[in-house]
Amino acid sequence: MDFNFTEEQLMIQDVARRIAQEKIAPTAAEFDASGEFPSANIKILGENGLMGIEVPAEYGGAGMDPVAYVLAMIEIAEADCAHSTIMSVNNSLFCNGILKFGSEEQKQKYVRAIAEGEAVGAFALTEPQSGSDATAMRCKAVKRDDGRYVVNGKKSWITSGPVADYIVLFAQTDPSKGAKGITAFMVHTDREGFHRGKTEPKLGIRASATCEVEFTDYVVEPEEVLGQEGEGFKIAMGVLDAGRIGIASQAVGLGRAAYKAAVAYSRERKSFGQPIGSFQMIQAKIADMKCRLDAAELLTLRAGWAKAQAEKNGGRFSTEAAVAKLTASEAAMFITHAALQVHGGMGYSKEMPLERYFRDAKITEIYEGTSEIQRMVIARNETGLR
């Protein structure tokens, strides 16, 4: 790893920081309270290349590398976790899979619209009865004689589902083949047969709209198959490796925000005639937070670097992504908890952002693979045992 960032990487980081502090941070609490999708801010992110950081310029993106994506995600997440969730789905889960497996027409049609901020994308893998066990999905796509597919089924916990224009959908095309019987499709949400459920009332990341989506005799055209029939599970797992780097970056940004708030408060708040930061109990919390934050950031940058190396030379980066996601998400939960404790009663008040940080942190240990799944991935990759 090279710890010296390139001029281009620093440039995209600076752009993300400016937008985060000028546009996102001032409105984060308001969007959290209302649960409203931040459409205007998302469009600004797209106009500045942040919705397609790794997307080549010919498809409307910034043409940067995975490390640049990590740096930008951290900045956005430090301002607001919900905005970074939307950014992560569009970059990692939507654009990444189409760039790797899609046709030229699909890249121009779907990736460009998302990367330029003209549309919102989503990723539909999870179902009410199948989360970590993706092969247990029941959503089916039956191929007709004319080459079209008819989709029926339900997907749940779809980030950006209430507002998405396009969705990468995974459905069973041959249930007898298990994982090899899953196919990926491009879905247009304005087409007959597509239905959105109610927006989920979530604990955190409330401005990131989430809902169930249902398909009733929804027709997919042959040119809307992503990759080849039966490649869906492979596409999904590859995309999730990249997505985990995004969530790790998000957790680092969130942890950084909580850590900075705790340090500042420990200097300002006085008790028994001195700043609380001079007490050993508070100092121990600050030290532990700092160690976990730095470890999470370095492991996440390593994962971004590993992804870049895999793209150049081939190979996998699933272990590095899982290690980063596990470490960073648990660090975020630890740091936000400790930071809230440092703030005492004020940390429990909605007048301070600490309680929002605390609520937002929990989801990083759950989505795109729970902490338990990350441990399983890491252990299986290390031992070679299944």
UniProtKB/TrEMBL annotation:
PANTHER family: ACYL-COA DEHYDROGENASE, ISOVALERYL-COA DEHYDROGENASE, MITOCHONDRIAL-RELATED. Its cofactor is FAD. It catalyses: 3-sulfinopropanoyl-CoA + H2O = propanoyl-CoA + sulfite + H(+). Belongs to the acyl-CoA dehydrogenase family. Its EC number is 1.3.8.10, 3.13.1.4. This is 3-sulfinopropanoyl-CoA desulfinase. It holds the Pfam family Acyl-CoA_dh_1. Residues 6-118 form the Acyl-CoA dehydrogenase/oxidase N-terminal domain. Gene3D superfamilies: Acyl-CoA dehydrogenase/oxidase, N-terminal domain, Butyryl-CoA Dehydrogenase, subunit A, domain 2, Butyryl-CoA Dehydrogenase, subunit A, domain 3. GO terms for molecular function: acyl-CoA dehydrogenase activity; flavin adenine dinucleotide binding. Residues 230-381 form the Acyl-CoA dehydrogenase/oxidase C-terminal domain. The keyword Iron does not apply.
